[in-house]
From TrEMBL:
<protein>
    <recommendedName>
        <fullName>CAAX prenyl protease 2/Lysostaphin resistance protein A-like domain-containing protein</fullName>
    </recommendedName>
</protein>
<feature type="transmembrane region" description="Helical">
    <location>
        <begin position="177"/>
        <end position="199"/>
    </location>
</feature>
<feature type="transmembrane region" description="Helical">
    <location>
        <begin position="9"/>
        <end position="31"/>
    </location>
</feature>
<keyword id="KW-1133">Transmembrane helix</keyword>
<dbReference type="GO" id="GO:0004175">
    <property type="term" value="F:endopeptidase activity"/>
</dbReference>
<feature type="domain" description="CAAX prenyl protease 2/Lysostaphin resistance protein A-like">
    <location>
        <begin position="121"/>
        <end position="218"/>
    </location>
</feature>
<feature type="transmembrane region" description="Helical">
    <location>
        <begin position="153"/>
        <end position="171"/>
    </location>
</feature>
<dbReference type="InterPro" id="IPR003675">
    <property type="entry name" value="Rce1/LyrA-like_dom"/>
</dbReference>
<feature type="transmembrane region" description="Helical">
    <location>
        <begin position="122"/>
        <end position="141"/>
    </location>
</feature>
<feature type="transmembrane region" description="Helical">
    <location>
        <begin position="85"/>
        <end position="102"/>
    </location>
</feature>
<keyword id="KW-0812">Transmembrane</keyword>
<feature type="transmembrane region" description="Helical">
    <location>
        <begin position="43"/>
        <end position="64"/>
    </location>
</feature>
<keyword id="KW-0472">Membrane</keyword>
<dbReference type="Pfam" id="PF02517">
    <property type="entry name" value="Rce1-like"/>
</dbReference>
<dbReference type="GO" id="GO:0080120">
    <property type="term" value="P:CAAX-box protein maturation"/>
</dbReference>
Length: 225
């Protein structure tokens, strides 16, 4: 397969994948997740997180292995440069927590830091977030789009896609129509995505992105943001 055909093939597969992925996730978030949240705590903790792993992470790894014929863990950069990724992730993770805390204090005039937030948020929003979101967006989509159209466009497209995947949840929370919330999110999330792309390139390890994403969410939950 020549280079042009390869790029077209990648874009065709990614387009089909994204249509299915975003459709399934929107239906799940709007129709199914509210039912799970009303159920027993164990169902919420295990069921919701397993569903996200099944809808987000597993399909991307399957596509890499059986459609693109890659070694999934190597491709998403989980199996190499672990120490380098952990070191950079820890360093920038601390920076993120401090930045979010200072920003919160400057905007509200107070700082209430509570690390004892809900177990569901700890498991799904902090501990598993890298495996459910970073593998898909930085490990899979960013790098595949980069193969098809170069870093500049890949970074921009991935940033927009990362923003859009949050829309169903924001709709259910009522945040989609809150102007201040949306303005802050539209600025922060694409910039966060681009920062993750830069650090992935610099460290050649997805562990950097995983730890920073976890640190960011930890700060948000601990500050009640």
């Amino acid at each position: 397969m020549d280079d042009t055909k390869k790029k077209r093939y990648i874009l065709k597969v990614l387009t089909s994948y994204l249509v299915v992925f975003y459709s399934i996730w929107a239906v799940y978030t709007i129709l199914i997740e509210p039912l799970i949240e009303k159920g027993p705590l164990l169902l919420n903790l295990i069921g919701g997180n397993f569903i996200k792993l099944g809808v987000w992470t597993l399909p991307s790894l399957i596509l890499l292995k059986y459609v693109f014929e890659e070694k999934p863990l190597d491709y998403v950069k989980l199996s190499q440069n672990r120490l380098r990724g952990l070191a950079y992730g820890s360093l920038y993770g601390v920076v993120i927590v401090v930045y979010v805390s200072v920003s919160r204090f400057l905007s509200s005039g107070e700082l209430k830091f509570n690390p004892f937030f809900s177990l569901d948020s700890w498991i799904g929003g902090v501990l598993l977030i890298g495996f459910t979101e970073e593998i898909v967006f930085r490990g899979f989509l960013l790098q595949k789009f980069e193969e098809a159209m170069g870093s500049k466009y890949a970074n921009a497209i991935t940033a927009v896609l990362f923003l859009l995947i949050h829309f169903p949840k924001w709709y259910m929370q009522g945040n989609l129509f809150m102007v201040e919330f949306m303005m802050n999110s539209i600025l922060f999330i694409p910039l966060f995505s681009i920062l993750m792309a830069v650090l992935l390139k610099k460290t050649n390890s997805l562990w950097t992105c995983i730890i920073i994403h976890s640190a960011n969410n930890f700060a948000m939950f601990a500050l009640g943001a």
